[in-house]
Structures are given as C-alpha cells and as structure tokens.
C-alpha cells in the first residue's frame, strides 16, 4: 500500500541544536516533495520544495534532503529557536500532478 | 500576495443542521480549490478537488451528498456539510491554485473549526 510516514509524533530539541525530521514514503515515485509548517488551529504554511533530481535545498536555517533510492526526505532546522516549535508536515504528489497528499506531521518542541 | 481566506474561522452547530464554509482567494484567481479535513493529531486528508464551473471530484470514501461543494466563481468555493453529526466535527482547510500552475503551488486558508453538538 502507499504510505507517507514521518518518523515521530513528537520531538523535543534543546534550543540552539539542530532538529532533524524524517519523512519516508512507500510505493510512490514523486517528482517532488514539500515541507510545511502548521501552527495549532492554523492552516499549513509552505516552507520548501525539493525535486527528485535535487539532493539538497536550503533556505536560511532550513535544509531539506531528498533520497529517491531510500525514499526518504530529511528536514533540518539549524540553530533552533523556541519560535520554531510547531508541527511540520511533509507532502508529495502521488502521481497525476493534480493534488498533493500529506504525512501526519511531527510536533517539534524547542526547549529553551 | 496569494492570500486565501476562510469564513467562518469557527462554527458550532446542532446535530442535523447544515453549515456552509467559504473559501476565497483574495488576490488571485483560482481555477482549482481543494478541501481538506484534519482530525486532532492527524494529517490533512484531501476530501475533494473543486474546479470552477464544473462538478467537484471527491476522494474515495467522501460522501458527495453530505459534503456539497460549489465553485461558482474564480475566487470562491463553498463547502456545505449537510445534516451534520458530531463525527463531522473537525478542522476544515481549503487551498487554492492559480491557473496554469502546478499541483504543488497551493495556497492554504487558515482553516475552519466545526463543532457539531
């Protein structure tokens, strides 16, 4: 069956450290993968997109990697801050190019 | 730019009544809008894809007669939950896509919290 799995439901990281979140998928061959941030009671906000032919993408303190052999994407936040605390969702195009589907998300808590 | 709004932001209704949620693209025209539902600590689940001027395409397991979608203009789509029951209580989120853009270029609304008592 097709699945998108994010490694843990919740993750606690000390402020200033690097937070690493994992997204694994099964039985998809996505042309790209996206990461979103969602705060409680709010809609998701787009952060980064990485295409299948890209190994790594950066934006300020954010870095995303995409390994199509492992069927995995890693999302890193360096020099983490309490304001980075949120739920982070990965999403991909399951094929057809007309919609995206989401993983369950990882709730990240940056501890001061 | 690329702002999507939803109204209301929260609503409480009695079991058996219907409730309408609006999704508007404020500064762009959206030929396609998507409706998602999210239960606590769960992922966003796509309910339906709505194209302006045509019938919505519903995902498997979503009752089209219960969740009525109307996309009458390029800036407005509505979701009506008919004969709502407590199990319909959820967070409903819409997103919008501009004409000619790829599926990944979706802009999300802030969501509507529906509570059915």
Largest sheet of chain A: 6 strands, mixed
Average pLDDT across residues of chain B?
91
Mean of residue pLDDT values of chain A:
92
Counting DSSP H or I runs of 4 or more residues, the number of helices of chain A is 0
Distance between the termini of chain A: 40 Å
Strand content of chain B: over 45%
How many whole angstroms does the radius of gyration of chain B measure? 13 Å
Identify low-pLDDT runs of chain B: none
Overall strand count of chain A: 11
- Span of the ends, CA to CA of chain B: 37 Å
Q: State the order of secondary-structure elements of chain B, H for helix, E for strand.
A: EEEEEEEEEEE
| Envelope shape of chain A | globular
Shape assignment of chain B: globular
Strand content of chain A: over 45%
Number of helices of chain B: 0
Major sheet size, sense and barrel closure of chain B: 7 strands, mixed
Biggest interface pair, residues each?
Answer: A-B, 22 and 24 residues
Notes on the structure:
The complex is a heterodimer of chains A (112) and B (117). Chain A has 112 residues and is mainly beta. Chain A contains no helices and eleven strands. In chain A, strands 2, 4, 5, 9, 10 and 11 form a six-stranded mixed sheet that branches. In chain A, strands 1-3-8-7-6 form a five-stranded antiparallel sheet, with no helix packed on it. In chain A, strand 7 and strand 8 form a beta hairpin. Helices cover 0% and strands 52% of the residues of chain B. With 117 residues, chain B is an all-beta fold. Chain B is built from no helices and eleven strands. Chain B is globular. Chain B has strands at residues 4-7, 10-13, 19-25, 32-38, 44-51, 57-58, 67-73, 76-81, 90-97, 106-108, 112-116. Chains A and B meet through strand 5 and strand 10 of A and strand 5, strand 9 and strand 10 of B.
């Amino acid at each position: 069956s097709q699945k998108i799995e994010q490694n843990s439901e919740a993750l606690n990281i000390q402020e200033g450290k690097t937070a690493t979140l994992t997204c694994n998928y099964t039985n998809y061959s996505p042309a790209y993968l996206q990461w979103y941030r969602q705060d409680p009671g709010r809609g998701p906000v787009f952060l980064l997109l990485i295409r299948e032919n890209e190994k790594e993408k950066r934006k300020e303190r954010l870095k995303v990697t995409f390994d199509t052999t492992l069927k995995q994407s890693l999302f890193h936040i360096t020099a983490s801050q309490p304001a980075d605390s949120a739920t982070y969702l990965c999403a991909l195009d399951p094929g057809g190019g007309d919609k995206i589907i989401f993983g369950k998300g990882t709730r990240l808590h940056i501890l001061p | 730019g690329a702002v999507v709004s939803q109204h209301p932001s929260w609503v409480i209704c009695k079991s058996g009544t219907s409730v309408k949620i609006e999704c508007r693209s404020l500064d762009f025209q959206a030929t396609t809008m998507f409706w998602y539902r999210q239960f606590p600590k769960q992922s966003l689940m796509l309910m339906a894809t709505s194209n302006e001027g045509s019938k919505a395409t519903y995902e498997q397991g979503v009752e089209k007669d219960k969740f009525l979608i109307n996309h009458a203009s390029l800036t407005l789509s509505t979701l009506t939950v008919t004969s709502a029951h407590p199990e319909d209580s959820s967070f409903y989120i819409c997103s919008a896509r501009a004409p000619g853009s790829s599926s990944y270029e979706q802009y999300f609304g802030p969501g509507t919290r529906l509570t059915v008592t």
